[in-house]
Amino acid sequence: MGEIELVGDPARATGGERPLVLSRFHPPPERFEGCFTTFYQLDLDTGGGPPVEDYLQPEWGNVRFFTGALPVAEIGASRAVGTRFTATGPSSRPCRFRLGTSRMWGIGFLPKGWARYIETDAYDCANVVCDGERHPAFARFAPLARTLCDPEASLDEQYAAILEWMDALMRPSRDEIKIVRVHEALVSGECASVAELADAGGMSIRTLERVCRRYFGFTPKLLMRRQRFMRSLTAFMLCEGSRWTEAMDRDYHDQAQFSREFREFMTMNPSDYAALDHPILSAFMEARAKVWGSAAQTLDRPAR
């Protein structure tokens, strides 16, 4: 198995006051470079307490497999309840979820990975959460549930099953060079306009719009705004005690603009979000930043 690091804080579960969250990150082998954010495993133990609730920020497409308690997940009007295999498309809205004691395997698809593995336009799956076994875009991954949702299977067996299945399904895309160029330009944050993003990708604006719709899920302008917002949100989440004004990206004109963007991407005010408890997300983001080098999928570069 590839290198695994385990990060968690057992003290969080003391006295049942906080859930125990343990995260393991598995670097995808080199042959999958640029396709996945990571293969990750998360153990949640509520210590006999009620299920926890949290909000996932906007991210790329994902498939997640659960053993134990099954989640309730919502993105806007899109909902998945009690599914052992939950899939999401790229999102520009939060995913509200509720989960009890469970083990989860997650696989995040970067745009290049979407091109290689998923035949449906990302735009058609944007802000969708669903039962992956029933949705035509994600049903091809359903056989993984036999192993990843088996409580008797070892971590080695589960990780091997992921690699075997991804090897079997992988196919090249003629747009890979374009995808990587656009993705790299988005993450760099150096493009101030759609025209600059098209230039950085070496393509016309019309081609850029096609590539973004097919593999990224949103218009170029929205993708650029989402990146700016995620840089600000992750800075706030990783700096305990910080203020929004300290975390705001330099490209925001003022706090009023940031607040408007926050309401669009998270469907609540910044102060309301800051007042919420984030028992899973805070621990996971801290672990991800420490082990993986970035706290959120949207900040991962297309090649490591």
From TrEMBL:
Pfam families: HTH_18 (PF12833). GO terms for molecular function: DNA-binding transcription factor activity; sequence-specific DNA binding. InterPro entries: HTH_AraC (IPR018060). Residues 177-276 form the HTH araC/xylS-type domain. It comes from the Bacteria. This is HTH araC/xylS-type domain-containing protein. It comes from Erythrobacter litoralis. The lineage of its organism: Bacteria, Pseudomonadati, Pseudomonadota, Alphaproteobacteria, Sphingomonadales.
